[in-house]
Amino acid sequence: MSLQILSAPTHAVLTAAVLLMTIVVPPTINAIYKPRKRFEQNKLKTIQKLRLDAELRILTCVHNTRQATGVISLIESFNATRISPIHVFALYLIELKGRTGALVAAHMDKPSNQPGAQNLTRSQVEQESINNTFEAFGEAYDAVRVQNLNVVSSYSTIHEDIYNTANEKRTSMIILPFHKHLSSLGALETTSVAYKDINVNVMQTTPCSVGIFVDRNLGSITKMNFRICMIFIGGPDDHEALAVAWRMVGHPGTRLSLVRMLLFDEAAEVDTISHYEVQGVLSVVMDNEKQKDLDEEYVNSFRLKAVNNNDSISYSEVDVHSSEDIPTILNNLDKFGYDLYIVGQGNSRNVLAFSNLLEWCDCPELGVIGDMLASNNFSSGSSVLVVQQYGYGGIVSGKQPNHVSTNNDGFEAHVV
């Protein structure tokens, strides 16, 4: 106006327009674009961030009836209530061999009393048995909904179908069976090496949290005196494992023991070697200190809200000064006769002691603690649930993660 470029009426109109846009545009954008809603959906991909009054959606993957029985016994421990119900998506994994996919798809719509139903393939008989097992489970509990699904695909790409199904159903956790089963002699023996590859691929590219279930006849244990031990060391996976245990402890007759391993001296040294090229030494140390604060905050919250208000929960701490102390601690814990161990996979722990031990693990996908608990040398009769929290890149193995793609040709996979 001092240069007389704008007249007084023009200046008034422009000022009014700016004020109008300032007042009108932000609320309009907030009404149309809701990034918080997408963030809330991402929070549902972990059990830790799931509200206690929200529905827990679980995708269970099984290869046979025996695994289905064990997984159902595990899900029973999640304490489904009308306030916090559970929606189970039971996914039966079938390897695509020849015309197997077409036979299974044809039988899905065939009544069991129809002529020719007795001439079923092994996969079809297994499918009927698994479906009946899960349906009976859903009918036994008012707060549990069950939906049976089937996927027929090559084992090399079946993890993609698991990913897509979990993403579509908006599940908070995928439960995978361990690739070993309990033999008549009481030892774990390999069922199929292909199952291990599937588990690793799912953990590398997962749309939510993942749990690998090592079943040692959990279904034979009564839930009226069910003892759980959650071993907490630190990191996001342990947070998710504690959230799972926290949810289970509401079940009548369940007792939970939270054992926290406190690392000192050699055991507390930060692993800067394996993360140096990506983050740098200073960044790794700072992240480790920040994680310790988060661990302390979460454990204190659990003790305040759960331990102090529930006689069925106990809390204890053990000191770890070197990696050699860990097997001794686990052997001492096993003397209490726990029915189920819940541990974090621990890939995000920047601790040198665990990084060194991981190199000696037979099953790195279970992490250090999970591998020890699932080892036949440990001679434990307890089942193990190894938990990996969504959002931290999945496990790292020798091969690159497989990229997830949707099968559109109808030949590689058949999901119903």
Quick synopsis:
The protein has a single domain (41-415), classed as Rossmann fold (3-Layer(aba) Sandwich).
Shape: globular
Number of domains: 1
Task: Strand order, main sheet: write it out.
Answer: 10-9-8-11-12-7-4-1-2-3-13
Assembly annotation: single chain
Total number of helices: 13
Query: How much strand content do the residues show?
Result: 15-25%
Poorly predicted segments: 100-107, 114-120, 398-412
Furnish the topology, listing elements before pairings:
Blueprint: H1 8-32, H2 35-43, E1 56-62, H3 65-76, E2 86-95, H4 100-107, H5 122-140, E3 144-153, H6 158-169, E4 173-177, E5 180-182, E6 188-190, H7 193-204, E7 209-214, E8 226-232, H8 236-248, E9 254-263, H9 273-279, H10 281-305, E10 313-320, H11 325-334, E11 340-344, H12 352-358, H13 367-374, E12 383-388, E13 413-415
Parallel strand pairs: 1-2, 1-4, 2-3, 4-7, 8-9, 8-11, 9-10, 11-12
Antiparallel strand pairs: 3-13, 5-6, 7-12
